[in-house]
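Illustration 12: Chitooligosaccharide deacetylase.
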Amino acid sequence: MFRPAFTVDVEEWFQVGAYETVLNRHGWDRLESRVALQVDRVLSLLSDARVKATFFCLGWVAGHTPHVIRTIADSGHEIACHGLDHARVHTLTPGQFAEDITRSKKSLEDVSGYAVTGYRAPSFSLTDETAWAHRILAETGFLYSSSIYPVKTDHYGQDTASRRPYRPVKDHDLVELPLTALELFGRRWPVAGGGYFRLLPKPFGRWAFGAGIRQSGAGIFYMHPWELDPEQPDVADAPMLSRFRHRVGLSRMAGQVADLLRQHQWQTMSSLRDEALLSLAEAA
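Figure caption equivalent — predicted structure in token form:
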């Protein structure tokens, strides 16, 4: 069983899927940026727990608030790619996807000073329908992806996917590292973070994530900096369910994350990728 990896998807509060129908991306520059404050809160929790994490960052954030990316890197954490501006993979052609990840990768590398070898698709939008993206990632220099959530929800997921690390491109060492899911009552449940983690009672959330690790042999947790910011603007025009999903549990998220950080021995995604690749080679 692999040690779990702690990951952070770095995006502004207004770039989330919950608000995409009411906050047009062309107006993002006019909205209050809070990502620096929010990332500082994440870094403080990680520092207190002495944990090194992987931050999947938007190229947009690198372009608009480069000091945030530098602060993350200077704190000893891994910088990885979350795409350019949170466009879902299935909304892009293969050519557009290649341009998206190439531009984002270069921007993050230029700002951080480190090679970027990991990728996570916005909204876990890499599925069977966009399986071509794995080869493009490999050809663009990525060594791992963490874009598959092996569950099925109304917004994302692929419940037929493997819950264990695998090589999606036969002639390349690119490794897909799926998010942690729990099999219970005849279905798979998303227990790797996000709104479900904020909604569940603290003891059950911790138990569910640990149980998912024991079932699959690998654990990946994810969160967003905006989840530590209950003071962020409330978008009243957003659909009621979207507002609920975005804001539920924000005030207690910091405590839940702090407890979870103490519960496991964590590693970065690059380290997990190396362990998984070695295990796959031994099993071949």
